[in-house]
Amino acid sequence: MLASGQVGAVGRVASIPRQFTGEWDTVLAACKSREGDDHLSLSTAQVWFYESIGPVQSLRVLGPLDIVVDAQMSGEGETWLAHYHFRLSRDKRSLSLLDEGQPVVYQRCPMPLPRPRAGRSALKGAPIHPISASPSRISP
Q: In the beta sheet, which residues pair with residue 69?
């Protein structure tokens, strides 16, 4: 097993490498508010979409800019194992979520934004991010 965050070789790691972490949105102007449907937060141990969140269960480094994350997601009273393939651009300003069909491209937000307090559901009733909500996107 590779050391946490090491990306020099293909293999498994214990946490998301730091170059992938941060706040991301499909529309850069939407970074000011974390309430957009297409907002994504990545920490070394967690994936957080609009209304779903989950700890990393496993992670494979395919290359210095390419990882696959399995996370135990939960949102709106449901839980599921999700499989996400993230690829950073060379300049590390954009992050693609590779999935069935066209990739979703996120822009790196300029600065971290404060997280809502645990248990707070300011976004209750809003739709879950479509990528994180679909159990059909789970891969073995």
A: 59, 84
